[in-house]
Design a protein that fits this description.
Strand content: 35-45%
Radius of gyration: 38 Å
Structural class: alpha+beta
Number of strands: 41
Length: 743
């Protein structure tokens, strides 16, 4: 960022402004004429008074959208005329001003030319012989129409381009410059005027391939500078001689929006111009040498230079994208020419030294890990979980709903509170100005996250930026309802305890089960069931299901509920690496296939684009050519592209399902390793909210790269767990089998 800033002297807002021009209309100072999209024309005289409300000389609604404004002597009447180009008309206006009686100030419409095609832009054409000013209008179909006063001289289509671009008239060579399709064309004005509309091809003086989209053209033909043509592109600036020879080129680091050429009082033969880029920066150049850069508070889309009073000479006038007209000069912030106010104070260095020592002690005491807090400032959040209701009309499935009331404390009456809710039920952001928020939770069967009863609430105030974080646990009945147990399942996890197996009736009292050793839960809005068994002859529990995403929520609920029943119970489970291994291999294969399909789509897309370029170039040719081979090639490439996109969509959906399964297993591994005697390394959220591949995330978490299974095994290393009260008994599977048969 530059030290130098644009210092504002005058500002005024026109929300619908689209174009601006700086010109002298009255007195010995410049005025600003602003055109708007709604047809409003405003004339500002900042030199008369610095007050925005008094500087507006006139504001008139013409009901014609202003595309571009030119000022010159276009009609036979004396004085300057304002030419405003709209979509379908070119209208001449005369500005009448009486300093003695401001009520007589008006903008009088003199003449209007209807246009056969919608207009795109226009440029000024000066006749060196007669000295008259003419206007050349370009339509959206790249047609050129010349107007002189109230007459239409000719209408031509010299360039068969796909889209129009900037145009300009080069006075030294008496030629018209047309930029379109990343090319700059130069043709003699007399040749264009002598053409007919029979479709005869124009012979251009010279053509230059710019390699970039041209945004604006400008001329610098005053002595002592060599007559030059300046072309502003999105990321470059070109300078050509009138004969088409390249003088120099500038590559920009940012995207340009507009530029302007100005004359300096120096006798050094150099082209002076300024470029506005999209980082709100103004770059001042002398030829291809950067002289100055400064920051603006907005992004200008139009620039002009004017002298508005005897003391305000050669000031910059900007029109921003938001419609703000601003006049100012280049300076610094803070100003280098301003004397800093210094208060003469006697400093007591002894007191200052004691303050520094006290600050050092406070910093030393506060050094170390920051405590995990849930609130900042005075914001507090309390919540109340309501009763479970039956499913509503707008619910996706037969799942019941639950209402949670969140109340805020320490919030002013006018403060706005934003509440961010993240859960497997829903993810929403709510804005409330009161002190209470009511949230309704219902199971969403299309949720991409593994189901969980935990809900994270984050409240933020917009004014003071105070935050409060809370985690609540919703009833498990919002997710599941009771069903018949299933004996066979794809995934099985066993939990070992040092206490006798508790009755599942007491573990899940909210479900109406009569079997103390088995229970099955069905997830709302899906076809997934999870079965829970307690061993008759052992202190173990087995959770089994065909949907791996249900393992974490049930194991977590079992762990929490068993610890509530038995305070000192020890729970242990083997890390299911033998189950994760095939899922991990399948996920890595899906990632490799997704990357290969992405590369294939990129290659085919580039091929389709090249075929399109060849077809367009052949269509521009007036000779009829056989396009059947190109059509066949395009059809084949298009079919390959559609097929690859469909395969990529299927692969991405498989990756989403695999991510859901892996996330559940990583949660289970983190939960099984979260005992006090274990050194937990892996985290259930290390693979969340990232665009990196699984192999990269494992390498980042493990600290080394290599075999993914080896990296996962290193993350699962933990200290030895001692469960002295567990007695190993043979026939544990038989106990579960007997339980399942009895159920």
């Amino acid at each position: 960022m530059s030290l130098f800033n644009f210092c504002e002297w005058y500002t005024n807002d026109f929300p619908t402004a689209s174009c601006m021009v700086v010109e002298n209309l009255v007195a010995n100072r410049d005025q600003i004429i602003v055109g708007a999209e709604d047809g409003t024309v405003s004339i500002i005289d900042p030199g008369a008074t610095e007050k925005s409300e008094e500087s507006l000389l006139l504001q008139k609604s013409t009901d014609k959208c202003a595309i571009q404004i030119l000022i010159g002597e276009f009609l036979s009447i004396p004085g300057k005329t304002i030419a405003i180009l709209s979509t379908n008309t070119l209208t001449y206006y005369r500005f009448k001003y009486d300093s003695n009686d401001l009520a007589l100030t008006e903008l009088q419409e003199m003449f209007s030319h209807p246009l056969a095609e919608p207009a795109y832009n226009m440029c000024l054409v000066v006749n060196n012989q007669s000295g008259t000013s003419q206007i050349l209008v370009q339509s959206v179909s790249c047609g050129l129409t010349l107007f002189q006063g109230d007459q239409c001289i000719f209408s031509r289509s010299p360039l068969p381009a796909l889209h129009p671009g900037p145009i300009a008239y080069n006075i030294p060579s008496a030629s018209v410059l047309i930029a379109s399709g990343a090319r700059l064309h130069s043709a003699k004005f007399s040749l264009i005027a002598s053409l007919s509309n029979s479709g005869k091809k124009v012979t251009f003086d010279w053509i230059c391939n710019l390699g970039d989209v041209a945004l604006q053209l400008a001329m610098d033909d005053g002595p002592p500078v060599q007559p030059s043509v300046l072309v502003l592109c999105r990321r470059s600036v070109f300078c050509f001689t009138t004969g088409g020879n390249l003088r120099w080129q500038i590559r920009l680091d940012c995207v340009a929006t507009t530029f302007f050429v100005y004359r300096s009082g120096l006798t050094i033969p150099s082209t002076r111009f300024g470029v506005i880029v999209n980082t709100n920066t103004l770059l001042i150049y002398a030829d291809n040498v950067l002289l100055w850069n400064c920051q603006t508070n907005f992004l200008p889309i139009a620039v002009g230079i004017g002298s508005f009073s005897a003391t305000h000479q050669y000031l910059l006038s900007f029109l921003s994208f938001e419609g703000r007209v601003c006049i100012g000069y280049l300076g610094t912030e803070p100003s280098l020419y301003r004397v800093v106010d210094m208060d003469n104070q006697i400093i007591d260095y002894g007191v200052k030294l004691q303050e520094i020592k006290a600050l050092e002690e406070n910093i030393k005491d506060s050094a170390g890990p920051m405590p995990l807090t849930t609130t900042t400032s005075n914001l507090q959040m309390t919540f109340k979980i309501g009763d479970i209701d039956k499913s509503g009309i707008g619910s996706r499935s037969d799942a019941p709903s639950c209402t949670v009331t969140v109340q805020y404390g320490g919030v002013g009456t006018t403060e706005r509170v934003f509440l961010n809710v993240r859960s497997s039920f829903s993810h929403q952001i709510m804005k409330h100005s009161n002190k209470e928020t009511i949230i309704e939770f219902t199971v969403d069967s299309n949720s991409a996250w593994p189901p969980s009863t935990n809900v994270q609430l984050v409240a933020v105030t917009a004014d003071s930026q105070a935050t409060c974080v809370a985690t609540i646990t919703l009833p498990i009945r919002l997710l599941f309802f009771e069903t018949s147990p299933e004996r066979n399942a794809k995934y099985k996890i066993t939990l070992d305890t040092d206490r006798p197996a508790a009755s599942l009736v007491s573990v899940f009292p909210e479900f109406e089960t009569e079997n103390p050793s088995s229970i099955a839960l069905f997830l709302y809005g899906s076809n997934s069931t999870v079965s829970i068994y307690s061993g008759n002859k052992s202190n173990r529990y087995r959770i089994q299901t065909d949907d791996a995403s249900l393992l974490y929520v049930i194991i977590h609920e079992m762990t929490v509920r068993l610890k509530k029943l038995e305070n000192d119970i020890n729970i242990h489970g083997n890390v299911p690496l033998e189950i994760v291994t095939p899922i991990l291999d399948s996920h890595l294969q899906l990632e490799d296939r997704s990357q290969s399909l992405k590369d294939e789509i990129t290659r085919i897309s580039r091929e389709v684009r090249e075929i399109e370029i060849v077809i367009v170039n052949k269509l521009r040719n007036t000779k009829t050519e056989n396009l059947v081979p190109l059509d066949m090639l395009m059809e084949k490439a298009h079919d390959q592209l559609i097929k690859a996109v469909d395969q990529q969509r299927t692969t991405r959906q498989s990756l989403i399902d695999s991510n859901k399964t892996l996330m559940s297993f990583f949660h289970v591994i983190a939960l099984l390793m979260s005992n006090p005697d274990a050194e937990t390394t892996i985290n259930g959220y290390f693979y969340c909210d990232t665009n990196q591949s699984l192999k990269d995330r494992l390498a980042w978490a493990a600290g080394f790269s290599g075999d993914p299974l080896r990296m996962l095994g290193a993350l699962c290393r933990q200290a030895t767990k001692t469960l002295t009260h567990i007695v190993e008994e043979e026939g544990e599977e038989e106990g579960f089998d007997e339980t399942s048969e009895n159920s």
